[in-house]
Amino acid sequence: MKKLILIFFMLPLPLLAQLSSFSANGYVKYLFSTSKFPFVNERLNDHLVHARLNTRWYPAEPITAAVEVRMRAYYGDSVNKMPNFLDQIKSHHEYIQLDDVLWDRNKSIGYAQVDRVWLNYSQNSWEATLGRQRIAWGTALVWNVIDLFNPQSILDFDYEEKPGADAIRIQYYTGAVSKVELAVKPGKTEKRTIAAAHFSINAFEYDFHGIAGIRNDRWILGGAWAGAIHKAGFRGEFLVSEAPEPLPTLSSYSIFPNAPSLFQNKKPVIGAVLSGDYTFSNSLYILTEVLFNSNGKIKNAGLFYSQALQAGMLSPSRWSLFQEISYDITPLLRGSFYAIFNPNDKSSVIVPQLTWSIATNLDLTLIGFFTSGKHFSEWGDFGNSVFGRVKYSF
After folding, report:
1. Rg for the chain, CA atoms, rounded
2. What is d(CA 268, CA 264) in angstroms, rounded to the nearest whole number?
3. pLDDT tens digits for 75-107?
4. Rounded to two decimals, what is the model's pTM?
5. Once rounded to an integer, what is the mean pLDDT over residues 245-265?
6. b or e along 213-237 (b: 16 or more beta carbons within 10 Å of the residue's beta carbon)?
7. CB environment 309-326: b (16+ within 10 A), e (fewer)
8. Measuring CA to CA, how many Å separate 84 from each of 90, 229, 231?
9. Are 318 and 292 spatial neighbours (Cβ–Cβ below 8 Å)?
10. Vertex 33: Cα angle to 76 and 385 (nearest 5)
11. Phi/psi at 8 (nearest 5 deg)?
């Protein structure tokens, strides 16, 4: 049945492509990786072919429909040597998955999914969107504590679009740069439902945001801002939420499935981010961010990854520091370097990156992923990886 659903979405494309009210774009990527993890004796070499198709249909002036499909083919050591590999790459939605395992062999897996399918209606100051969509709230560039629906890690560099949420979103624009909105992601239980109101205004040359709602059956309040200080970007976010009940761990997402509880008391949980960036005239770019979790751990943070993921936290640690430096070596070659440092357990991850624009719509990227730290520290058990990627966009 899932294969038939995917075919149903793909069949109309050649016909719709002939209509002026239809558009399509996407990319094809090949990614090679070689990795060494502390809990695996040998080095793992892997290959990934990743194709994506984004479509838009405009049947009438106020209506836009979208279907976006991604297909991935994995081959290599991780498929049969990493536990629960298939579960880790699959999407997880409450009601309709719209995905299919195309094949599952000893060292190879093919997987396809519809990760966007929505209908948008826009008229005057009103806009409504129904379906699997990306609801991205927040102003910071690395960590978004007020991104309630799909908080993501910057380390997931190969999924630029980020996952979508099955939700309904209604927006009312009160001005050119201000609006109020309501977004609801229904769940099969109250603990899986997210509902929140969001407003944004512009004042004193700053954008201000506020949110209030319920996530995982607990109240949340938050806000954010974005502006500049002497031409340097200045952003921030904060979120206050009711402490969740202790949650069972998800062993498929954690190296340490039997970790103790991340939530030891009933005090409200506070998350906050401060962010600043600046671009010099010679293209040198600097970005600094600081993340704070009031209930984050200062010891053995690596034990709590699974629970932090379930609670919507961006890190299990108390403090996280981010620093990025980027520079255009030539007009077609850009180098960057960023690091995330845990000041409590002294663990870190360092990610150098080099991107070369080979030709129009064709890029080559080299990425390193190097961690350090003691056993059970936040980054000490993540190992080291090197990636090479070729991407063609159309």
Report:
1. 22
2. 11
3. 999 998 888 899 989 988 888 889 999 999 999
4. 0.88
5. 54
6. bbbbebebbbbbbbbeeeeebbbbb
7. bbbbbbbbbbebebebeb
8. 10, 47, 47
9. yes
10. 125
11. -60, -40
Neighbours of 125 (CB within 10 A): 11
Q: Are 206 and 225 in contact (CB under 8 A)?
A: yes
Calculate the CA dihedral of residues 142, 145, 150, 154 and round it to 10 degrees.
20
In angstroms, rounded to a whole number, what is the distance separating the alpha carbons of residues 74 and 85?
Answer: 10
Contact by Cβ (8 Å): 319, 291: yes
Mean of the pLDDT values across residues 30-44? 92
Tell me the per-residue pLDDT of 312-341, one tens digit each, with 9 for 90 and over.
789 999 999 999 999 999 999 999 999 999
Of the candidates 317, 298, 291, 302, the one whose C-alpha atom is nearest the C-alpha of residue 239 is 291
Rounded CA gap, 61 and 2, in Å? 32
DSSP state of 252: G
CA nearest to 67, candidates 111, 4, 133: 133
The mean predicted confidence, pLDDT, of the chain is 90
**Alpha helix positions (H), the chain:** 2-10, 13-16, 77-81, 85-89, 305-310
The single residue listed with the structure tokens 């429909």 is 65
Nearest 5 degrees, angle CA 53-CA 168-CA 171? 100
Task: State how far the Cα of 317 lies from the Cα of 304, in Å rounded to an integer.
Answer: 9
Place of tokens 């996280």: 320
